Amino acid sequence: MYQTFYGFTMMPFSVTPDTRFFFPSARHSEALASLIYAVTERKGFALLTGEIGSGKTTVARALLSHLDPDTRVAMVLNTHLTSKQLLEVICGEFELPIRNRDRIELHAQINDYLVQQLAGDRNVVLLIDEAQNLAPRTLEEIRMISNLETETEKLVQILLIGQPELRQKIDSPELRQLRQRINIRFHLSGLTREEMVQYVMHRLRVAGNETGPRFSRGAWRVVGRASRGIPRLINIVCDNALLIGYVRQTKRITEEIVREVAADLALDGVTAADVPGPVRGVTGAASPAPPRRPRGRLARARRLAREMLWRPFHRSAGA
Question: Contact 225/270 with Cβ under 8 angstroms?
């Protein structure tokens, strides 16, 4: 909606894990290097955890571009599965038959497949995202898959990716056998204040115009406080701040604009009481919504932006 106004070739703050926007912060670079090492050196199990929106999935997808072209990869993204369903999904990813197979037969198929790939000198990766949703019994099923190995290397590299609860689950006594097999652990934390600024500028640059919007010093401060350095929250705050800037026809993103966004999104550290009054600079803007309805100003800004977008078409239709 605001892409042309700021001179972008693409939207800079999408929340999808687009590897074109991968930002190599110190922690994200280390996380990626850890996964690459786990796969290339055939370490068996690796664990990557982080808060929601910290960039785990983006790191995992960046990993795929660093793998040998002959590497066989199975990705499990839906983890609300029983043990048998998980085996069926894995077989499906490896294009193995699953119809009328029981659990033992599915295991045997996966084992045979891994042996075939070893004979062809091909590495195999099983990447499981949102792994914190897996039940302990299902995690044990994954451990059983990892049992197949030679004297010197693992036949499948299993990457478990999930929220901090995954660490707590794996550290439980009932999963001690699985815990002992995990060779690499990495927890992805939020960006520092300096990295946050670099991250935003990086995304603006990839989107085609890092000098389009200009953030004030106070705006940076509020973005950092509201997002806590979590990349997804940074994206959401900045995306909505640019939207309000577009509605006001200004490319300067001020502290006031970011405060409005953070309050409407009910992010920690900023409340609606910090930003009294309507969205200034917009003729006929309605009164602010009460605190219990924090999305009022952003909803109004989006509505006005849509009206601005369609205004030229209405004028040409009436000519």
Answer: yes
Give residue 30's Cα distance to chain centre: 16
Buried b (16+ CB within 10 A) or exposed e, 134-147: beeebbebbbebbe
Residues 6+ apart with CB under 8 A from 293: none
d(CA 224, CA 271): 15
In this structure, the number of other CB atoms found within 10 A of the CB of residue 35 comes to: 27
Can you tell me the mean pLDDT for 55-60? 95
The β-bridge partners of 253 are: 215
Separation CA 142–CA 98 (nearest Å): 17
Query: At CA 275, angle to CA 202 and CA 15, rounded to 5?
Result: 30
CB 78 within 8 A of CB 128: no
CA distance 106 to 131: 21
φ and ψ of 127, to 5 deg: -110, 120
What domains are there in the chain, each with its CATH number?
Answer: 3-9+191-311 (no CATH), 26-188 (3.40.50.300)
The residue with tokens 């700021």 is 6
Tell me the pairing of strands 214-215 and 72-76.
Answer: unpaired
d(CA 234, CA 246): 18
Quick: pLDDT tens for 81-138: 999 999 999 999 999 999 889 999 999 999 999 999 999 999 999 999 999 999 999 9
Pull the structure tokens for residue 104: 């033992």
pTM: 0.82
Query: In the prediction, which pLDDT does 150 show?
Result: 80
N-terminal to C-terminal alpha carbon distance within the chain: 24
d(CA 150, CA 256): 61
